[in-house]
Amino acid sequence: MQSTVFVDPRSLAAAFDQVPEPRRAASVVYPLSAMLAMTVAALLANHGSVLAIAEWGARQEASLLGALGFVDGRTPCQSTLHRLFRQLDGQALAATLTRCFAPQALPASGEAAQGVAIDGKAQRGRLRFAAGDGVVHALSAFCHDAGIILAHEPIAAGPDKAEAELTVAPALLARLDWHGRVLTGDALFCQTALCEQVVAAGGDYLLLVKANQGTLYRDIQLLFEPSSPALPLLDRRVAHTLETGHGRSRERRELIASTDLTDYLDWPGARQVFRLERTWREREQTKRALHYGITSLAPDRADAARLLALRRGHWTIENRLHRHKDVNFGEDASLIHIGQGPTVMALLRDAALTLLHAAGIRRIAPRLRAHSQHPEQAVALVVGPLPNGA
Fold it and tell me: In what order do the strands lie in the sheet with 285-295?
């Protein structure tokens, strides 16, 4: 006989009590926090659709259901879950999860600045039901090292991907405490207003620069690729890495950092610029990619090697967030498309993945399969105190 599982006040399940109730009091049968906690536990037990989540809940023992908040052992059906998710305030749920997870991930005093990647993601299963092609449905902030989703900002449907992401970026950045943190992102987010917002909030940024900032791009390009070879850099610091794998025999990255433009550039908080070159062998051919970037980190806080590590760390948002949500949680295959349903399910997938990463779990698929056989472990993650990694 399994022992009773108790809800810790520092748990995700307890945090769900802060989500506003969208239903009329007379129509409430199941507690809102219990329904959200059950959904996350079912996701952790490898049940990704709303139907599978409802069926999972109906099979669980009374002790587990009681811990989740179902005191009489009854759980909601698929239709009840769908109705709730359609009505729930996605912005309020996102704010609750930010309050729950983000404060736990602040770097300790004296530690190197913590990388926070931002990037947009579409839920492709929704595209057949909406106008537009390739629209991004959410913008996320992801901690490089801890693997924690710090904030998630839903995006209303719109025809232009870049405009949609930039529209909600200020709200996403405003959700976070930026002290001791570095914003990393693609060239889309290299905007004076966003850089100024992060610096004013006590943070830093490290961003690529492309043609969307034509003058800045040309200035950095001219610094590193001068028309006259007789103009060497006064400040030139280099770092490089060499890796194998991913179908490539070798991949070399070289970053050159310089402060030569610091006094010249009219850009908020700019302290260094850099040139990043990647070369690799693929199918017996040598390939090359060249990028330029800018950062508010001074050389005494981030040398060339640290800049290279932060830029490399940015891709954790693809490898440890977007990929897992699609491959292991089936987000791209989800056909939920009505009301707040898609946003709510995306946020609950974020919560499940954050719990796994915070617990130090890197191999997600095997752990989901294990939880499917041992549901008490999934429930313990939801009702227990947040793991030390969070």
Answer: 149-154, 138-143, 114-121, 181-185, 204-209, 285-295, 272-282, 248-258, 237-245
Distance CA 204, CA 273 (A): 14
Q: Which residue range is the domain that position 155 belongs to?
A: 95-321
Mind giving me the DSSP string for 8-71? PTTSHHHHGGGSPP-S-GGG--S-HHHHHHHHHHHHHTT--SHHHHHHHHHHS-HHHHHHHT-T
In DSSP terms, which residues pair with 288 in a beta bridge?
A: 279
pLDDT, residue 26, reads 87
Question: 3-state DSSP call for residue 104?
Answer: helix
For 330-365, what is each residue's pLDDT tens digit? 888 777 778 888 889 999 999 999 999 999 999 999
Side chain identity at residue 310, one-letter code:
L
Same domain (yes/no): 352, 203: no
Distance CA 113, CA 81 (A): 41
Across-strand partners of 293? 208, 274
Q: Do 82 and 99 share a domain, yes or no? A: no
Specify whether the CB–CB gap between 67 and 6 falls below 8 A: yes
Number of domains in the chain: 2
Convert the pLDDT of each residue in 33-87 to its tens digit: 999 999 999 999 999 999 999 999 999 999 999 999 998 889 999 999 999 999 9
What count of other Cβ atoms lies within 10 Å of the Cβ of residue 54? 21
Tally DSSP H helices, then E strands, for the chain: 15, 9
Q: What is the pTM of this model?
A: 0.87
Question: Taking the mean position of all CA atoms in its chain, how far away is CA 126?
Answer: 20
